[in-house]
Amino acid sequence: MNRRDTLKGGVISGLVVATTCLTGCVSPFLEEGPLSLEQKVSRLKDFSYDHKPNNLWYDYMGELATIAEFTDRYIDMLINSQENVPETVNILYPGSGYDVKPLLIGLKLLHQTSVQEVDFVYTEIGSLDLSKVGSKKRVVNWHKGEEDLRSMLEKSFRQYIQAGLIENMVCTVTSTGNMVSDGMESPSMSVRYSFDVCTSDGYKRLNLNLSYNQSGDRDEISHDERNFFIQQDADYLSGNRRSPFLVDVRAKFWPPVAEKRATAVYPSYFTPQQFEDADIVLSHQPGDWSLLQFDYLRALMQAKDRKENIVFTELFDRTWARHNPLPGYTTDYITLNHDDFGMNAEIKGTRKTAGGLVFMPAN
After folding, report:
1. Residue 66 and residue 60 in contact, taking contact as beta carbons nearer than 8 Å
2. Torsion over CA: 154, 158, 160, 161 (sign)
3. pLDDT at 118 over 90
4. Burial classification of residue 351, based on how many CB atoms lie within 10 Å of its CB (0-12 exposed, 13-18 middle, 19 or more buried)
5. Is-contact 212 224, C-beta < 8 A?
6. Alpha-carbon span 135 to 133, nearest angstrom
7. Residues paired with residue 193 on neighbouring β-strands, in sequence order
8. Strand pairing partners for 174?
9. How far is Cα 87 from Cα 100, in angstroms, rounded to an integer?
10. Span 20-39, pLDDT tens digits
11. Measured between alpha carbons, how far is 95 from 89 in angstroms, rounded to an integer?
12. In whole angstroms, what is the distance from residue 225 CA to residue 274 CA?
C-alpha cells in the first residue's frame, strides 16, 4: 500500500485543536529523472533564507555537510553494527527553535538503511519571562510565541518540499492547557508534523513533534549530584575553565536558589520520557549550553533502564563528558572532519570541533 494513503486526516489523542495539510507547494525544478538524496539536498542552496548570507552563524550548507558526515558515522557505528536494525529511530532536539537542518539525519537514515520511520522531538518554551538574573534580562528563544515559531517552521518545510526531500505534510495540534509562571500564562501544546519520504524502498515516514511548554520545573541539584560535579570537574581543577561547571549551569536561565523567584517556572530542556525514548540527542545553539549538558548528564545518571545514547554536539572538545567519566557508562567518541555546527562558527581564534558522545552502559 502507498504510505501516503495512511496520512490523510489522521488525529492523535487529546484535545485536538486542528489538523491541516500543507498544499500548494510545487517544486520550481524541472525533473530530469530520479535524483539522489544528495542532489535534492543541494537544491536548498537555491532558496533564499531570512538569515544574512555573511553571518557565519548560519552557514546553512556548511552545517548540512557536518550533519551528513555525522549521520554517515552514526550509520556505520551504531546501525550497521546491530543484528536487528531498529524500525524507528528517535531524535531529541532540545531548545530547537525553528532549525530544520537536522531533518537530514532522518532523511539519510530512511534512504540509506532499512529504518522505516524517524521521529524527531523538538522542545521549546516561549512567552514566559523566565530569564531575569539580578538586573539582567536575557532572551530565552528566537521566536515570538507559538504561532510565530510554527510559521517559521512551516516556511522551512515548504522549501524542503519544493526541493523534493519530503512530501504531503499533515499537521495535528493538540492543546494541553497553559503553563503559568509569575502570573503569566502561555499555551502548552504538542504539534505533530508528518511527512512522506520517497526512497528506493518505497515510501517511509518522517515525523516532527514540537513539544511547546511541555517540560516541568527542573529539580534542584541533589547532594550526591553536587559532590559528583565538584569532585570530577577536571577542566576547572586543571585551570582550563575559568569557573566551575555548576556555576556555569546556574549562570543564565536557571539562577541559584537564592535568586530564584518563588512564582516562576524554570523548565528543563526535556521530559524524562522524551529522553528515555531518544536514540540521539542534539545540542545545537540551545540557549544555555552548560545547562543542557547538565540536563542530559543528569538524565543519563538517573536512567532506570540504561541503553546506548549518543549526543551530537557543537564545541565537542569542551563538553563535560569529553574530559570526565560518567558513573555507570563507558564513553566513546565520534570525531568529524567537518566542523560547521552551532556555536563553532561563533568561536574565533580557537579550535572548533563538532562530534558525538556515545554513552554505553558499563558491564
Report:
1. no
2. positive
3. yes
4. exposed
5. no
6. 6
7. 171, 208
8. 16, 190
9. 22
10. 555 444 455 545 567 899 99
11. 20
12. 21
C-alpha closest to that of 354 among 320, 346, 341? 341
**Angle separating helix axes 289-302 and 223-231, nearest 10 degrees:** 120
Q: Residue ranges of the domains in the chain?
A: 3-361
On average, the pLDDT of the chain sits at 84
Strands 329-335 and 309-314, how do they pair? unpaired
Stated length of the chain: 363
Q: Which residues pair with 16 in a beta bridge?
A: 174
Percent of the chain with pLDDT over 90: 61
* CB-based contact 334:317 (threshold 8 Å): no
Q: Which residues contact residue 260 at a Cβ distance below 8 angstroms, ignoring those fewer than 6 apart?
A: 266
Pairing of strands 184-199, 202-212: antiparallel
Give me 40's grid cell: 535534492
First and final C-alpha spacing in the chain: 44
**Cβ–Cβ under 8 Å, residues 274 and 238:** no
Q: What is the 3-state secondary structure (H, E, C) of the chain?
A: CCHHHHCCCCCCCCEEEEEEECCCCCCCCCCCCCCCHHHHHHHHHHCCCCCCCCCHHHCHHHHHHHHHHHHHHHHHHHHCCCCCCCCEEEEEEECCCCCCCCHHHHHHHHHHCCCCEEEEEEEECCCCCCCEECCEECCCCCCCCHHHHHHHHHHHHHHHHHCCCCEEEEEEEEEEEEEEECCEEEEEEEEEEEEEEEECCEEEEEEEEEEECCCCECCCCCHHHHHHHHHCCHHHHCCCCCCCHHHHHCCCCCCCHHHCCCCCCCECCCCHHHHHHCCEEEECCCCCHHHHHHHHHHHHHHCCCCCCEEEEEECHHHCHHHHCCCCCEEEEEEECCCCCCHHHHHCCCCCCCEEEEEEEECC
Q: Cell 524502498 identifies what position? A: 201
- Condensed to tens digits (0 to 9), the pLDDT of residues 140-153 reads 567 778 888 999 99
Task: Count CA atoms closer than 13 A to 159's CA, side-chain side.
Answer: 19
